[in-house]
Amino acid sequence: MKTLIVHAHPEPRSLNGSLKDLAVSTLEAAGHEVRVSDLYAMNWKAVVDAADYGPEASNPLKVARDSGRAFDAGTLTPDVRAEQEKLLWADTVIFQFPLWWYSMPAILKGWVDRVFTFHFAYGVGEHNETKYGERYGEGTLAGRRALLSVTVGGLESHYSSRGINGPIDDLLFPIQHGILYYPGLEVLPPFILHGTDRMTEADYPEVAKAWEERLLTLESTEPIAFRRQNFGDYEIPSLHLKEGLEPAGRTGFGLHVRG
After folding, report:
1. Which of 9, 57, 64, 71 gives 50 a disulfide partner, CB atoms 3.0 to 4.6 angstroms apart?
2. What single DSSP character describes residue 3?
3. How many CB atoms lie under 10 A from the CB of residue 102?
4. How confident is the model at residue 259 (pLDDT cuts 50, 70, 90)?
5. Of 71, 72, 64, nearest to 48 (Cα)?
6. pLDDT per residue over 68-101, tens digit each?
7. Helical packing angle, 204-215 and 15-29, nearest 10°
8. In whole angstroms, what is the distance from residue 56 CA to residue 249 CA?
9. 34 SS3 class
10. CB 185 within 8 A of CB 226
């Protein structure tokens, strides 16, 4: 297995840094190839601008169109091209980050904004009476897996169905479904550590054991059963879920998960 770890925490000695290092050592010891994109260590540029697209940038800038033109022409900046090549190399992508303000750190969102360009992560495939492009289960990154490894400061009860912060699955839905599944990645159930602000060194061995167990079962873990866009569950072109397919009483984001 070839694994790319995209790591987003500014402190190498943090819990996130330790989990990233443990993932590298565990996977390599099991015979897997591992590459790491440590965004803070790389001094990753987190903002999209015309410089990303070189001679393909227009004035005024049109991010979607210009990013696709630059991708097609091979004129994206070297840092962006390198990350796209890593994604195409990998069988599995692990995203290691803390939950900050209900989402990923800005540097990681900036990685997505710059790397997931038009004609690479979106805007692929044809539109006709039965297809609406290749996305949500299809696309450039189909056949690969993704896993979020997320540290959360608050208690697990705070992120439950009745918790004040909302269900963790709902908070992660825009990332797991909207960013990762959209270009075709199969998304594994996330590895979540709650209450990390209260964690001590004495707690780490148990955490490390649980993380090692998840890492060693990546290839056998069933992905989240998100519905595929072009395989009969949605009306096209409205992309509304067909009546009667939802389990009784289910609403919201859960409509887009089978079973």
Report:
1. 57
2. E
3. 12
4. confident
5. 64
6. 999 999 999 999 999 999 999 999 999 999 999 9
7. 40
8. 49
9. strand
10. no
Contact between residue 43 and residue 58 where contact means Cβ atoms under 8 Å apart: no
Q: Which residue has the tokens 């540290």?
A: 151
- What's the pLDDT at 130? 87
The tens digit of pLDDT for each residue in 5-27 reads 999 999 999 999 999 999 999 99
CB 96 within 8 A of CB 7: yes
Q: β-strand 92-98 against 145-151: which pairing, if any?
A: parallel
**SS3 annotation, 100-169:** ECCECCHHHHHHHHHHCCECCCECCCCECCCCECCCCCCCCCCCCEEEEEEECCCCHHHHCCCCCCCCHH
Which residues does residue 192 pair with via DSSP β-bridges, in sequence order? 150
Name the packing angle between helices 78-89 and 106-115 (round to 10°): 90
Helix (H) / strand (E) element for 225: namely none
Predicted TM-score (pTM) of the model is: 0.95
Amino acid at residue number 219 = E
Task: Match 């038009």 to its residue by tokens.
Answer: 118
Question: Cα(167)–Cα(183) distance, rounded to whole angstroms?
Answer: 24
Residue type at 52 in one-letter notation: D
Q: What pLDDT sits at residue 249? A: 85
Residue 129 has pLDDT above 90, yes or no: no
pLDDT tens by residue, 135-146: 999 999 999 999
